[in-house]
Amino acid sequence: NNQRIEIAPKFTKNVPQWKSFDTFASSKFSRLTWALLYITFFAFFATSWWQWLLLPVAFFMAPIHGVIINWFAHIYGYVNFKVSDTSKNLLPFDFLMMGEGYHNNHHAHGGRANFGGVRWHEVDVTYMIMIVLDKLKLIQLKKF
Predict the structure, then answer these.
(1) DSSP per position, 80-91
(2) Which of 92, 93, 88, 94 is nearest to 75 (CA)?
(3) 3-state DSSP call for residue 57?
(4) Largest alpha-carbon pair distance within the chain?
(5) Which secondary-structure segment (H or E) carries 129?
(6) What whole-number distance in Å separates Cα of residue 73 and Cα of residue 95?
(7) 97: CB partners within 8 A, 6+ apart
(8) Interatomic CA distance for residues 113 and 132, integer angstroms
(9) Spatial distance between the Cα atoms of 13 and 35, rounded to a whole number of angstroms
(10) What is the C-alpha separation between 123 and 99, in angstroms, rounded?
């Protein structure tokens, strides 16, 4: 977020700007710290050599997920709710992002565990997992 290009106002409307956080998050120190934390995690928990092949997935998962959700989900898709920003739902069935692609639903009802479920085709896979964990008494879902 070096602000090298002009961003259309419709994409920044009601979006908080945290310059000090952006500066820290974009710093080499922050990136190296996260890389070391991932490597440390693998050093403690990888039980076989082939599991280290998953390390690049861990490195790239957050940036790719961030681009898909926080960029595409404000440009492409459909809207269920009128909100004060440009958030949209990406796909009718969001199996790739496990429900995170129902971004407009999330912005309208941020406290709900189920991002999908507004239309018949909106299936939030993560919410299904949460229901199972709730039934197993490992978590407790709030009732709305």
Answers:
(1) SS--SS---B--
(2) 88
(3) helix
(4) 50
(5) helix 125-135
(6) 15
(7) 65, 68, 69, 90
(8) 13
(9) 33
(10) 7
Q: Looking at residue 14, what is its pLDDT? A: 65
Give the pLDDT confidence of 3-43 residue by residue, as tens digits. 677 777 776 666 667 788 888 888 999 999 999 999 999 99
Whether the predicted pLDDT of 85 surpasses 90: no
What is d(CA 136, CA 144) in angstroms, rounded to the nearest whole number?
Answer: 20
Residues 73, 102: Cα–Cα separation, whole Å: 8
Instruction: Give the separation between CA 32 and CA 52, rounded to whole angstroms.
Output: 18
pTM: 0.66
Task: Give the gyration radius of the chain's Cα atoms.
Answer: 18
User: What token pair was written down for 88?
Assistant: 């949209």
102, β-bridge pairs: 89
> Facing residues of 78 across strands?
89
Q: Is residue 74 a contact partner of residue 88, using CB atoms and an 8 Å limit? A: yes
Q: How far apart are CA 95 and CA 92, in angstroms?
A: 9
**How many of the other CB atoms lie within 10 Å of CB of 35?**
13
E runs forming strands in the chain: none
- 3-class SS of residue 78: strand
The C-alpha atoms of residue 69 and residue 133 are separated, in whole angstroms, by: 25
Tokens of 112: 């709900």
